[in-house]
Task: inverse folding
């Protein structure tokens, strides 16, 4: 097996890729909360409640940043901005760490 073939089979992840993966998982949790709110999911369900708790914790700095009259729009704006910031920050950190 040549070195090129071996590299293709055993592609190693750079540390920045792991940081980006963590921020993607956080964004998925936040987006899941947005979807649950928009679909009026049962707040008494363990999955919905746990996702909401985690999303609120991850989006702490963004809660009530915007205060529209509609509760659904409030969730979409504030939590959506948090998810977007996590993805942008993750991409930036990925590039910085991988370039070291």
Result:
């Amino acid at each position: 097996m040549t070195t090129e073939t071996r590299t293709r089979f055993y592609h190693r992840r750079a540390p920045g890729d792991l940081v980006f993966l963590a921020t993607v998982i956080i964004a998925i949790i936040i987006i899941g909360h947005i979807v649950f709110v928009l679909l009026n999911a049962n707040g008494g369900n363990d999955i919905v409640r746990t996702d909401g708790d985690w999303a609120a914790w991850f989006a702490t700095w963004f809660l009530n940043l915007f205060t529209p009259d509609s509760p659904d729009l409030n969730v979409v704006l504030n939590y959506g901005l948090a998810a977007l910031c996590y993805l942008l920050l993750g991409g930036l950190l990925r590039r910085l760490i991988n370039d070291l």
Observations:
- The chain has a mean pLDDT of 91.
- The chain has four helices and no strands.
- The CA atoms of residues 3 and 9 lie 10 Å apart.
- Helices lie at 3-9, 15-38, 46-58, 71-99.
